[in-house]
Amino acid sequence: MAKSIIDQTAAWIIGVMCSALFFGGISMVVKVVTYKSKKDEQKIDSAAIMEHFFEDAPDDKPSAPASSPETPTPKPNTAANPAGKPVAQAKKEMQDTSSQARPSAKTAAEQPVAEALQEPLSWSYRGKTGPDYWGDIEKTFVDCKLGRHQSPVDLVRARLEYELKEYTLDYRQLQVTLAPHPLLMRLNVTSPHSTVRGQTRFTLKFIDLHLPSEHLVDGLPYDGEIQLWHQGKERWLAIAVFLEETGQENAALQKWIALQPESTVEFDLSELGGLSGAYFAYRGSQTHPPCREEVDWIVFKKTWTASTEQINQLLRRYRSNARKVQGLFKREIRVSPAFK
Fold it and tell me: What distance in Å separates the CA atoms of residue 14 and residue 8, rounded to the nearest whole number?
């Protein structure tokens, strides 16, 4: 009797174990099938995602020129390309690199300095369009950032070379018209005046006034700087003189201040103070965009005077409009014998 009970119990236990193994096996198979199905779905999704990421990515074939009419405009794409860099970023970097290329060289007669002052202006003397950003505003302004013969400079007398002859400029009956410019006083010259330097004749085109001075002398600025811009065949000649506040009114300068846009006045340089005596000379650039490096500078040591009220009147109209000094690098500053 006891043996029969033991045999029945053992059979029941074995049956339970077999049932457990059977149903456990089925559950395992279901889990495996489910897991495999999920993995296949993930593979499909991944493939779809990769196809979406690279549908606009460039291949290894060279693209057609931008000017070709058959070339479609590529769609923007911010996904990662096979090189690990966003396509949009790569395109932008290529554009940025090409924009750094210097503009083709042209003579001063082909690209006058005055063209940079036509309205509307993309640059200014302050903020995000100020001198620190000029080189990034337009690709034609690249010299403002990369040029190594830029102006103005600090005229440091300890580094001078004595090589030049005396030079005097004595223009009479100058007729000028005030240009309607928002950033600086510009007087367009309407009378025929010119000067010869070396074997080149330079024609006076316009006069600019900057506050304070753009050039420094031994690290110190003056209250203002007047620049007479002359155009030659291949280069420009800029002749500058400093403006110094002395308390005494300059009658000729007052004629300028009284001008309204497009109005004209006549004067002699001698009325302002004349241009003669010691001067600095060096090779540089325009002091505003596009900062082209095709300018021979002569900066006289003497100053023209102005009263405090005259300086204040000019500042109220034009505010500060001087570019900071640029590096000399390996350039020489030469001076006339009058410095000795």
Answer: 10
Q: Which range of residues forms the domain containing residue 306?
A: 113-339
In a domain, 72, yes or no: no
Q: Is residue 100 assigned to a domain?
A: no
Q: Which helix (H) or strand (E) holds 314?
A: helix 308-318
pTM score of the predicted model: 0.67
Per DSSP, the residues of 90-148 read HHHHHHHHHHTSPPPP--TTTS-GGGGGPSSPS--SSGGGSGGGHHHH-GGGTHHHH-S
φ/ψ of residue 60, rounded to 5 = -80, -5
Cα-flanking dihedrals φ and ψ of residue 175, to 5°? Answer: -110, 125
Q: Is 170 inside any structural domain?
A: yes
Predicted confidence band of residue 15 (pLDDT cuts 50, 70, 90): low
pLDDT (tens digit per residue) in 73-118: 333 333 333 334 443 443 344 344 334 444 444 454 455 555 555 5
Which tokens go with 69?
Answer: 């009419």
CA distance linking residue 19 with residue 25, whole number of Å = 10
Q: Output the six-digit token pair for 195.
A: 């000067």
Instruction: Specify if 23 maps to a domain.
Output: no
Number of compact structural domains in the chain: 1
Q: What is the DSSP string of 243-264?
A: EEE-SS--HHHHHHHT--TT-E
Which of 287, 213, 288 has the alpha carbon at shortest distance from 243? 213
Please state, as a whole number, how many other Cβ atoms lie within 10 Å of the Cβ of residue 217.
Answer: 16
